[in-house]
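Starvation-inducible DNA-binding protein
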Amino acid sequence: MARKTSVPRFTVPSLDPKQGAEVAAILQQRLHALNDLALTLKHVHWNVVGPHFIGVHEMIDPQVEVVRAYVDETAERIATLGSSVKGTPGALVAERTWDDYSIGRADTIAHLGALDVVYQGVIADHRKAAEDTEETDPVTNDMLIGHLHQLELFHWFIRAHLENASGTLATTGDTTEKSGAASGAKAS
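Structure:
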């Protein structure tokens, strides 16, 4: 989906307004992804069941808190760049490039299998955004790299539940939440 970029009247020093708008457009997609991730994590927190319930239930809330802080930081960077932040649910749904999370009440390992796929997508797109801002805006690049540090750590927490003693990941090769959930459930 092509991003509509409106050029602000001002931006941060060392960027021209067009560059500021381009960086803000990249960040707008990250804002949508982070908002979606926070909501998805909370959805999982409420819908996990099974023998690992309490461990996973309690593991998810700190992730939600950190991701929500990244949402705010990203939105404030967009505003700092002189652009308008689109933080409504309608804008997120209209502009996202991924499907809605599709797993309801399910075993913890099934949710973790689905979250493995979700985190893979979020992290890959965050890395691309960091790469796309590296030359133009080192401040935004630094912010995104900081996010990646924590997002990748959270992804490891998820994957630790899906890995067996020989190092095989139950969700290897899965590209959809449903296949990740099925692989996780099958491995448990």
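The chain has six helices and two strands.
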